[in-house]
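Protocol step 4 of 6: structure prediction from sequence.
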Amino acid sequence: ADASQLALTQIELDEMVGSDMYRSDGEEILEVDLHINSAIAAASNDSIELAIKTFSELLNGELNDQQLVRTELNIGILLYNNGEYEEAKSHFERVIRLETVREPIIEKGWWLYGNTLLNTGKIAEAREAIYNAYVMNGRFREPALTLLNEIDTELIGTSPGKMQTP
């Protein structure tokens, strides 16, 4: 059986994370944050290639951790939806390694990373990633539990040496 059938076909674009444009007095809105949000707007208007290009360019520049995690997550989502799972995987990997970032983003990172691993045929690693999203006990807990059960059924059903019952 093909584990990739268990993964999300598409990631909703509203899973992309924009930069907060509210600043305390005297703090300027950073150009990078404007670029992040304009790239999300481009993606929402079906200018996916432009959005990917913008995020790629941002990754070549100086970013703080908040900007970095948003950029990595967002470009990962767009690449995933393009079916470029290997590329998406490396971006989601960077999201889950950024420990200074707020938990909901890390949880989303694990969830999306797990789905990406399913698409690249790495079922055991995918299970671990999805379990990590599950134990964070946030908004992906339910879908993660459902997916864990599906993966376990799949793993048991396809493990070598098991009698195949009709």
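Step 5 (inspection) to follow. Residues 141-158 form the longest helix (18 residues).
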